[in-house]
TrEMBL record:
GO cellular component: cell envelope
Protein name: ABC transporter substrate-binding protein
Keywords: Signal
Principal cellular location given in the protein's record: other
Family of the protein in this entry: Belongs to the bacterial solute-binding protein 2 family.
Domain of life, source organism: Bacteria
Organism placement in taxonomy: Bacteria, Pseudomonadati, Pseudomonadota, Alphaproteobacteria, Hyphomicrobiales
Organism: Kaistia nematophila
CDD domains xref list: PBP1_ABC_sugar_binding-like
Signal peptide range in chain numbering: 1-29
Coiled coil regions, renumbered to chain: none
Length: 350
């Protein structure tokens, strides 16, 4: 898929000389882990926790596209990619191999929030930029953490459902796998609103993998047990697609449903005229992480945490997303557009 690629005066030179005379550099004070002693073109490491899910493949695609652009600009010469296949211990070993190879930056989706702390501290001490996104680590030995707000996601989805039902109705709740932080945070985000609206009755809730087939099976079982359902509060796009298919197969009327930007769900939404709301974890967080790593290495001011606003999909803009569906895998995610201007705006947040 084609990605957007939008992208020293004498006084600056004088400032650089002055800083060197003083024994400092712009990079020293700009961002954590940065020592200012690494020079372009840089080698980036992408420490992937697993590569099989389509979401991860799309995310890696945005990283590779950004790296190609950075190569053209003379800022990057190599991307080192590892795949831990879901094993946090393997991921730690692979990060260590990146440190041993003296990469200049590590881009990380963490398999564990706590396990990589020691190896990341080692990388940070060696002046390696570390950009952690999506699944975050507890340690502050990173250059920046980048993420949307999963709690806010759950709150907004729950508000849509309450409003859609006029504050009264029987609902099912669909969660991702139990114990996964993103899933748990989304669910927790809706707690206060659900408590404050006793007219919303939770008939049942279930945890399944973020895949259509198990979600459809789980919802089918719930439909047999509950003949009257007014809404489905779903915290995942594949879960929502499975729910819509289950209702359809059972000859049940479609009900208001939340979800995310899975292409199949968005297409079913349009096809069946659903009353829906969705948001997303944008795949371009990967590209943004690569860009942020290079900006930090170049001595730019990079905040320790970058909060990425949740893009919202509703009936006012779903056609804009579906118009680009052909550019995305059938089992993939239609993520929001991005460019360097957006990246710079996010990095300018204080």
């Amino acid at each position: 898929m084609k990605k957007s690629s939008l992208f020293a005066s004498a006084s600056v030179l004088g400032l650089g000389i002055l800083l060197n005379v003083l024994g400092a550099s712009q990079a020293d004070a700009a961002a954590n882990c940065i020592k200012g002693d690494r020079k372009a073109p840089y080698t980036l490491g992408w420490a992937n926790i697993y590569s099989v899910p389509t979401w991860m493949k799309q995310t890696q695609g945005t990283i590779e596209a950004e790296v190609e652009q950075l190569k053209k600009e003379g800022l990057v010469d190599k991307l080192m990619v590892t795949d831990a296949q879901g094993d946090s211990n393997v991921q730690i070993q692979q990060i260590q191999s990146m440190i041993d190879a003296n990469v200049d930056a590590i881009i990380l989706i963490a398999g564990s929030s706590t396990a990589p702390a020691r190896v990341l501290a080692d990388a940070c001490a060696k002046g390696i930029a570390i950009i952690n996104f999506d699944s975050l680590v507890d340690t502050n030995d990173v250059t920046a953490k980048v993420n949307t707000d999963s709690h806010q996601w759950g709150e907004q989805a729950t508000k849509f459902m309450i409003d859609a039902l006029g504050g009264k109705g029987k609902i099912l709740i669909l969660n991702g796998p139990a114990g996964v932080s993103v899933s748990d945070d989304r669910r927790a985000g809706g707690n206060e609103l659900l408590k404050a609206n006793p007219g919303i009755e939770i008939l049942a809730e279930t945890n399944t993998a973020y895949n259509v087939a198990p979600a459809q099976e789980a919802v089918t079982s719930l439909l047999f047990a509950h003949p009257e359902i007014d809404g489905i509060l779903s915290f995942g796009g594949a879960l929502s697609a499975g729910a819509v298919l289950a209702l359809d197969k059972q000859g049940r009327e479609q009900v208001p449903i939340t979800g995310e930007n899975a292409r199949q769900f968005l297409e079913l939404w349009k096809e069946k005229g659903l009353k829906s709301w969705a948001t997303m974890q944008p795949n371009w967080l990967g590209a943004f992480a690569a860009y942020t790593a290079v900006q930090a290495l170049e001595g730019k001011d990079v905040p320790a945490f970058v909060k990425v606003p949740l893009p919202i999909i509703d009936n006012s803009n779903i056609d804009e997303y579906l118009a680009r569906a052909k550019d995305f895998p059938a089992d993939g995610y239609i993520f929001s557009p991005y460019d360097r201007a957006l990246f710079d705006k996010l990095l300018a947040q204080k």
